[in-house]
Structure formats: C-alpha cells, structure tokens
Amino acid sequence: MAERPERPEAAAAEWSSPAQFTAISRIFDAAGIVLYVADLESHEMLFMNAEARRLWGSGVGRRCYDVVNPGQGHCARCTNALLVRDGRPVEQPTVTEVQNSANGRWYQCIDKAIPWTDGRLVRMEVAIDITDRILQEQFREQYLEMVAHDLRTPLSTIAMSASLLHVLLEPAGPSRTTAPVEAIARNARHMAEMVEDLLETTRLESGRPELRKSVFDLADFTRTVTSHLGTDAGRPVTFEASGPACVSADARRLERVLENLVGNAFRYSPAGAPVKLRVEARGAEAIVSVSDSGIGISAANQARLFQRLYRAAPGGKGLGLGLYNCRLIVEHHGGRLWVESALGSGSTFSFALPLVPHAAPGDDTASRLTSESHA
Ligand code: ADP
After folding, report:
1. Cα–ligand 1 centroid distance for 149 (angstroms)
2. Ligand 1, from 229, 311, 326, 343: best to mutate by most atoms within 8 Å of Cβ?
3. Which of 96, 26, 102 is nearest to 65 (CA)?
4. 148 Cβ closer than 6 Å to some ligand 1 atom
5. Is the dihedral of CA 122, 126, 131, 133 positive or negative?
6. Helical H segments across 31-130, by residue range
C-alpha cells in the first residue's frame, strides 16, 4: 500500500475553528481526560478543556507551566523540543508519566505537535489520570520488598548454621553428613541470590531507583571486579582495554551487571575455556564486552533474552531476572545492552555507557554534573 504523504496544511483544515476543537474536546471531558494546547515558542496556553479547567482553573493566555505547575518555573521535562523535526510534527507522540505538583496525582501525558486553527504548530497534551495504577504498583513493590526482606533473615540464618555445621564436622573428615550440609549451604545461597534479584527488579521497575553515582575508570573497575570473579570460580579470564574510559555510574550496580554476565559466561561454556573481557572507548561511549566460547544462543531466543522471567533453557541459575535486571541497570544509566551469538559458537554480551569526557576518576564536579543530567 502506498504511504500517505505528510500534508500538514490538510491537517490544519481539521481544526478550522476553535469552536470545532471545543466540540471535539467534549469527548475528552466526558471521559475525565485533561486536554490542553499551548504555543511551542511562547508557552502561551491557547486552549483548555473543561477537565483541565476543573483541575487548574482557567489559564488561557497564561504560560502553560505557570498553569500546570504553579510557582515551579519551566517544566524540567518540557517535551516541546521533541515534538517537531524539520518544521514538521513528529509522527510518534511523546509519552511521559509525571506527578502533578498541584494535586499530587499521577498522569500519563501524551504530547503531540498539531497545526492550530491559525496554521502554526502547537503542542497538544492529553493527560490521563493513572494514580490508581501507580498506587497499585507501589503497593505491589512494597509488598514484594517486605516479603523479600522477611525471607532474607531466615535464609542467612540457614546459610550461617550450615557453614557452622560444616566447620564442626570438618575435623572428623568427610562423612555421610558432609554432602547434605554442603547442599543446604549451596541452596540457601542460591535462594538468597534469587531474593536479591527479585528485590532489585522491584527497585529498578519502580522507575525511580536510587543510583549512587561517582566518576570512575570503567577499564580499571572491570579489571578488578572480573579478576576476582575468575579467581573465585577457578576459571581463566582474559582482559584487554584500549585505554581509560571514564563513566559516571553506580559502582555496586555495575558490579552486579559484570557478575551476571561473567557468571553466565562461566555457566554456559566449558570449564577450561577462557572468558574474554574487553573495554574500549568508542565515540561518546564506553563499551564493555564479555565473550565466551560456549553453547551460544539461537536468534529466536536472543530476541527475548532481556525480557523479564525469560530463560532460554531449563536449568538456569535463577528466575530469569539476571539479564532483565542488567538491561534495566544499564538503561537507567542512559546506556544499552546487547548480545551477538550463534548456536554452538559462543556469545558476546556487550553494554555501552555514556563516556564522561575530560573527567578524572573521583572528580566530584563531574560526578555531580552527570548525576544531575541523568536524574
Ligand atoms: P537467570 O537469572 O535465570 O540465570 P538470565 O537472565 O541471567 O537468567 O539468563 C537468561 C537465559 O539466557 C538463561 O537461562 C540462559 O538460557 C541464557 N543465557 C544467558 N547468558 C548466556 C550465555 N553466555 N550463553 C548461553 N546462554 C546464555
């Protein structure tokens, strides 16, 4: 089917008069949906439907940010710059979830540039109240967090008691009880890791994870973290770096990403085969790659690998949250995570983070600046 040419002038004719726009906006009033229109340059409020006026009072003629967020100045997340490209409205609307400072309720805001009745491009915002959904999500997160926290204590007691039993039994040499005691300790550790993964998922999915960022050299960091992983697992790990690559990141969270990728590389490749790590600065990004020569992943499975609860084959280590959490962590840092693999030919998992140019590790000013820009 032939693509329909973009015709902004024809679209303009759809709103030939403010009265016509008002009539259409009544549908939104009936559904309890906020609708308003503001000038892209001056921010002047041009139109508010009844629902918008009920929420903020009459604000036509004032600046949109003074109406929707009184006393706060320019909106921190103003979408105007995203709505027009090369003088034309961007086809895809910009969708954000924001809490309104006037009434504390949450809204899904759908912003789009449209031709106004006089032909100029303006921003139309449709805001749907999603407070009930957000409250349900918060309840689910809090409940999961509470259950996971409550599981932590008995689990660590089981793990500690099993270690103690092991120490007590050791002088007598291997016995019939050694293997079950080791199994208790191993499984308690395994369960503790799953509980941690679950807790981390709830924090990351909340969209507001607390990131403790600092500036450090990702090459140095990766070398240190992964060399001890190799030693602990008794597995060969090789490392190469093209030079320093400074990033602003939450070190504990990046450590979890590396532990996960390297742990999987160990798990899905033969015992003596080395796992290769590479860090390089390329363009505006620092890129870390973890390569193994293991079982590989089919193209079909690669497409679903980073989804929640996905396991390509039974017998994985956990709940299928490992790579999902890695992706969320990397994305919360403004980065991306991907895999290159073929069945039977090993896999390379890579993630890229924005480089902090001209920064020295531990540089506090850079750390503050980047924390702000990614908040
Ligand atoms: P889990 O937390 O259950 O271990 P992950 O999210 O870490 O799950 O991994 C999801 C699935 O991806 C695994 O069950 C495994 O099938 C596959 N996988 C991950 N890493 C590799 C790898 N390096 N080689 C082959 N398969 C892998």
Report:
1. 25
2. 311
3. 102
4. no
5. negative
6. 50-56, 64-68, 80-83
For the stretch 147-177, what's the b/e string if a residue is b when 16 or more beta carbons lie within 10 angstroms of its beta carbon?
Answer: ebeebeeebeebbeebeebeeeeeeeeeeee
CA nearest ligand 1 atom 23, residue: 265
Among 74-88, 200-214, 289-303, name the one with the lowest average pLDDT: 200-214
Per-residue pLDDT reduced to its tens digit, 175-204 = 777 788 888 988 898 888 888 888 888 888
pLDDT of residue 9: 43
Q: Is 26 left (phi over 0), alpha (psi -120 to 50) or beta?
A: alpha
Residue nearest to atom 21 of ligand 1 (CA): 264
For atom 11 of ligand 1, the residue with the nearest CA is: 311
- CB distance 59 to ligand 1 below 6 Å: no
Q: What is the pLDDT of residue 7?
A: 39
Average pLDDT over residues 7-22: 60
